[in-house]
Design brief:
Elements: H1 23-31, H2 36-41, H3 51-55, H4 71-78, H5 91-101, E1 106-108, E2 113-114, E3 119-120, E4 133-135, H6 145-152, E5 155-156, E6 168-178, E7 183-192, E8 198-205, E9 210-212, H7 215-218, H8 222-230, E10 234-236, H9 238-246, E11 254-257, H10 260-266, E12 269-270, E13 274-276, H11 277-312, H12 342-350, H13 364-382
Helix pairs in contact: 12-13
C-alpha cells in the first residue's frame, strides 16, 4: 500500500534500471503512440462527452437502473423526420423499435438486506432473488445535471507546459465498485518512464459511497481507505487525483499502460499520446500469426508443385491419378492461448512474477513498473 500522499518525487528504487532517452529511442517510442482513430476504435474517450451521453448515465431515483435511452436509441430517434432527421423510411417501425428497446419496468426490494439471515427484510428471500416490488415506469431523475457533470465528464490534459512535465510516464490505477455498481477510482500510481521514479502513488477517497473495494484485485481494503482518510494520506476524489497526475503529464507526455482505457477512464481523462502494451502485444501476435499462415500457404504450394512434377515424369505411369488430398483445415483455437494479462506477459517476456499475493491483491506501483518494462522489452527486441 502507498504510505502517503506525497507531492515529492520518490527516488529511484533499488533494482529499477533507468532507460536512456536517446533520440533513436524516443523516435521508436513515439512510433508506437496510437493514432487518434485507433484510440477511438479501441473504446478510448477522445473528446468531452455530450449532454446526450451524460444523460445516458442518469438513473431511476427509485430502483437505481439507468432510465434514459441508450446512445443507440438516441440515434434512432434523431433520424426520425419528427425530430428533424432525414430518415424517410418507415418512421413508425423505427419508432416502435425504439419503444421496444427501452425497458420501462421499475423493480426493487423495498426492505433492507439482513446479513445475519442473508435475506431481504421485505420478502424474506435470498440476496439474488428477483425484486418483490415493481411499477410500470421508472421515476425520471430530476436535477442530476451537476452531479452527472462532476462524476462522468472527461477532462483533456491541460495544454499549459510545466517544467515538471515528463517525456513519458507509466500509469496504473485500481478500481472498486460503487453503490450503484459502477467502477470507481481508489488508487493511482504514476512513475517516470525513463528514470523509474515514483511520481504519484496514493489512495483516492471516492466521491461516492462504495459497495466494496474489490480487495482481491485492488489490494485496497475499506479499513485502508478509512485510515488514509483520517490521516489525510489520500486524494479526496477523482479531480484531486487528476490534478496530481497533470503536475507531471502535459499534452506531449507519452502515457504507457496495460489496457490503458480502463485507467484513463477511471480518471475521467482524455489524453491523445498513449502506448497501450495490451494492444501492442495483440498487434504483434496478429502479425506473427499472419506471417506463419503465409509461410504455411507457401509451403503447401511448393508441396503441390513437387507432387505434380513427380507425377508428370511418369513416376506413376499406368496408374490413374488420384485426387490430391485437400489441405486440412486449421483447427479453431483460442486466439491468445498464452494469455494477454499483464501478469502473463510479464512472466513470458520478463521472467518476472507479479501479483503473486492472491489475497493481498494487485499493487499499482508493481503493475505500472511492469507495463513500463514490457514496453522497453518490446522496443529492444521487436523494433
Amino acid at each position: 500500500m502507498p504510505s502517503s500522499k506525497s507531492d515529492t518525487v520518490v527516488p529511484l528504487s533499488s533494482g529499477i534500471s533507468a532507460i536512456e532517452p536517446t533520440k533513436e529511442y524516443l523516435a521508436q517510442l513515439n512510433s508506437l503512440v496510437l493514432p487518434l482513430e485507433a484510440l477511438s476504435r479501441a473504446g478510448f474517450i477522445v473528446k468531452e462527452l455530450t449532454k446526450e451521453q451524460l444523460d445516458s448515465r442518469k438513473r431511476c431515483k427509485t430502483c437505481g437502473v439507468r432510465s434514459e435511452y441508450s446512445s443507440v436509441i438516441m440515434e434512432i430517434r434523431k433520424a426520425l423526420p419528427s425530430q428533424g432527421g432525414t430518415d424517410d423510411g418507415n418512421a413508425k417501425a423505427v419508432e416502435a423499435k425504439a419503444e421496444k428497446t427501452v425497458v420501462h419496468r421499475c423493480k426493487r426490494h423495498t426492505g433492507a438486506y439482513i446479513k445475519s439471515t442473508k435475506k431481504w427484510s421485505c420478502c424474506g428471500k435470498q440476496l439474488n432473488s428477483p425484486p418483490c416490488w415493481g411499477q410500470k415506469n421508472h421515476d425520471q431523475p430530476v436535477g442530476q445535471d451537476e452531479a452527472l457533470q462532476k462524476r462522468w465528464q472527461y477532462h483533456p490534459t491541460p495544454t499549459n507546459p510545466q517544467r515538471s512535465h515528463r517525456l513519458a510516464v507509466a500509469l496504473d490505477c485500481e478500481m472498486g465498485t460503487a453503490i450503484d455498481s459502477e467502477t470507481e477510482l481508489i488508487r493511482v500510481t504514476v512513475i517516470d518512464y525513463f528514470t523509474g521514479e515514483k511520481l504519484v502513488d496514493s489512495l483516492v477517497f471516492p466521491d461516492i459511497e462504495m459497495r466494496h473495494f474489490n480487495t482481491r484485485f485492488s489490494g485496497v481494503t475499506r479499513k485502508d481507505m478509512t485510515l488514509a482518510y483520517k490521516q489525510h494520506r489520500c486524494f479526496l476524489g477523482g479531480a484531486a487525483a487528476r490534478a496530481a497526475v497533470f503536475k507531471y503529464v502535459g499534452p506531449e507526455t507519452i502515457v504507457v499502460a496495460h489496457s490503458a482505457n480502463g485507467d484513463l477512464g477511471s480518471l475521467r481523462w482524455i489524453h491523445h499520446k498513449v502506448v497501450d502494451t495490451h494492444i501492442l502485444e495483440s498487434e504483434r501476435r496478429k502479425k506473427e500469426e499472419a506471417e506463419k499462415e503465409k509461410e504455411n500457404v507457401d509451403n503447401n504450394v511448393k508441396d503441390v508443385k513437387t507432387e505434380q512434377t513427380t507425377a508428370s515424369m511418369g513416376k506413376r505411369q499406368g496408374e490413374s491419378e488420384g485426387k490430391q488430398d485437400e489441405p486440412q483445415k486449421k483447427p479453431k483455437v483460442r486466439y491468445h492461448p498464452e494469455g494477454m494479462s499483464l501478469k502473463a506477459l510479464t512472466m513470458k517476456h520478463l521472467g518476472r512474477e507479479i501479483q503473486a499475493a492472491v489475497k493481498a491483491g494487485h499493487d499499482s506501483f508493481e503493475d505500472a513498473l511492469a507495463s513500463r518494462d514490457l514496453l522497453h522489452y518490446h522496443i529492444t527486441n521487436f523494433l
